[in-house]
Design goal:
Length: 190
């Protein structure tokens, strides 16, 4: 019994020494570069703030889906503009899924060379509503600020999308990249 106990003890001691001797501390390992991961923004609300350039009148419209996809339908405010008018428009993107609303717009401004906002008038507004992005990343337009000119009475819609175009994909068009969010507004020009 003493021999088998002594043999077992010797084997356990050798295994422990081999294990401890072969292990390195994590501090001794070289640090490997970690990939930069750009977490997609959670955007639950898109706000449009209009200022008419002559009268300085303000209009506000929003698209909100605070419980996210699959829950309740989004709450969408329609847009009513005056024909023959010119509007400066600011777009805001928010995450209102938590207790406190988070303004995602600042992050988009910070990464403006990776983002573009695409405005597509639809349903007869294509030739009646001219939208021009007025801000840029230094090379290409962004669209957080824009100018809208409504020339005639009509009604239709607007398809708005925020495109994420990282790693040199941005080329000034809406074709490349991934869509962070896309929404639709009904528009009446009176």
């Amino acid at each position: 019994m003493k021999k088998s106990f002594h043999a077992a003890w010797t084997i356990m001691l050798c295994a422990t020494i081999i294990t401890l001797g072969s292990c390195k501390k994590d501090d001794d390992l070289p640090e490997l570069p970690q990939p930069v991961v750009n977490e997609p923004e959670e955007i639950t609300t898109v706000e449009l703030h209009f200022t008419e350039t002559v009268s300085n009148a303000h209009i506000h419209a929003s698209w909100a889906d605070t419980d996210g996809p699959g829950g309740a339908d989004p709450v969408i405010e329609s847009i009513t503009l005056d024909s023959g008018s010119n509007y400066n428009v600011e777009v805001l993107f928010l995450d209102e899924s938590g207790d406190v609303a988070e303004d995602i717009t600042a992050e988009i401004k910070e990464e403006d060379d990776d983002h573009i906002i695409c405005f597509e008038p639809e349903g007869g507004l294509e030739s009646i509503l001219a939208i021009t992005r007025t801000d840029s990343d230094g090379t290409y337009e962004v669209g957080l600020e824009s100018n809208w000119v409504a020339t005639n009475k009509a009604s239709g819609g607007l398809h708005l999308s925020l495109k994420h175009q990282p790693d040199g994909l941005k080329d000034g068009s809406c074709a490349p990249g991934d869509t962070d969010i896309e929404v639709h507004f009904d528009i009446t020009i009176q």
